[in-house]
Amino acid sequence: MSRRLIDLSVPVLDGPSEATPVEVDLIDHASAPAALGLTPGDFPEGEAITNETVTLTTHTGTHMNAPLHYGATSGGRPAAAIDEVPLEWCYAPGVRLDLRHVPPGAGITAADIEDAFAKIPHEPCPGEIVLIWTGADRLWGTDAYRAQHPGMTRESTAWLVERGIKVIGIDGWGFDRPFGAMIGDYRETGDNAFLWPAHLYGREQPYCQLEKLAHLDELPAATGFTVACFPVRLTGLGAGWTRVVAIVEERSAPGR
Fold this sequence. Notes:
This protein is of the alpha/beta class.
């Protein structure tokens, strides 16, 4: 038996796919000696060790949203911050649902989710990590990435959470529909139910979101893999950067 690791994360960098800048202040090998009060001659090859100061949001790159991101309470209790998310939620069997037929800007319905499970076929099990495959990560590196994706709805999110799913990921810029679609509907109707309904469902029942996944097409099947998605422990905050990895156990060829 061999093990293959598949990186399901996008890189953290400044570019058109991020809505906010990533700023890096670098102390490189050449300038580091002065920062330490020394000279290049004090170090082998005249190079000291580097350091970087990075300024970015907790929602930059692939990240996990904790219940605290959605509201102060969840299920009638104080909402968990990212450092309070149970570790067992973050390492579990994964299920990839193919929703690539849902057009950009549209909402993924509960019927869409149920149908995707039926096509695998697979029954959702409590604790599984469900990955929503829209194909939007093909636009990573472009402005279109931020708006050309479908999104989860309150109903589709509830369908999963009510069946014991605690972590749901998506390969789009955001978990809900794009900002423009939601805000446009709100301004047209005055109905604030259009604003981040999948996020705000987390005020009713606690669950976590993984946003900006990638490479779901590299998974060999819809099931049969494990997902590891441990977020950085940022105390008291609503989200944290996360390296999401799929672990695939593969049988070795006979005689090996």
